[in-house]
Amino acid sequence: MTTGAAVAADVERWGRLVPNTGIVGLITVGMLFAPIVAICTLGEPPFTATAEQARAFFANGSVGWVQLMTVVPKLAAIGLIWFLVGLALLLARAEGKPAWRSGVALVSGVMLAAYLLLDVRWDAASYGAAELDSAVASFVFDVGNLGFANI
Questions:
Q1: From CA 23, how far away is CA 83, in angstroms rounded?
Q2: How many angstroms separate the Cα of 86 from the Cα of each of 13, 55, 115?
């Protein structure tokens, strides 16, 4: 049997988790999309871009502020993991036993965060754009767009 003080402490702990999880989620979404919008100002070519258009896009992306903006989604992926863990805990509490749906949601979300952390193709292409071959630029551009569409 639980005491009234234990129940009150449990309610207070879960009560703090809800707004903190929401705040982290909102900040993470902003950090994910702000760099995408900023980098699109470079004049991203269409999905069917030629090799030269892709190379020119990566060459435009080798400026300092764009290099800084490529780090922001990596930091957002770390915040996304924090958000997903909090969300999974809240969903598991509401879901009951066995909490398999919240576990599946957590694993799916962590896979997205892992993709954001590990996919560095566009970053590498922008960093080495001065000596980037057009065929490689086209390949990186296509794979990056398809990878983004898949996530």
A1: 9
A2: 12, 41, 20
Three-state secondary structure readout of the chain:
CCCHHHHHHHHHHHHHHHHHHHHHHHHHHHHHHHHHHHHHCCCCCCCCCCHHHHHHHHHHCCCHHHHHHCCHHHHHHHHHHHHHHHHHHHHHHHHCCCCHHHHHHHHHHHHHHHHHHHCCHHHHHHHCHHHCCHHHHHHHHHHHHHHHHHC
CB 73 within 8 A of CB 35: yes
pLDDT at 10 over 70: no
Domain boundaries, given as residue ranges, for the chain: 4-150
Statement: residue 60 has pLDDT above 70: yes
Average pLDDT, integer, range 18-37: 86
What's the pTM value of the predicted model, to 2 decimals? 0.71
Most confident of 67-71, 88-92, 142-146: 88-92
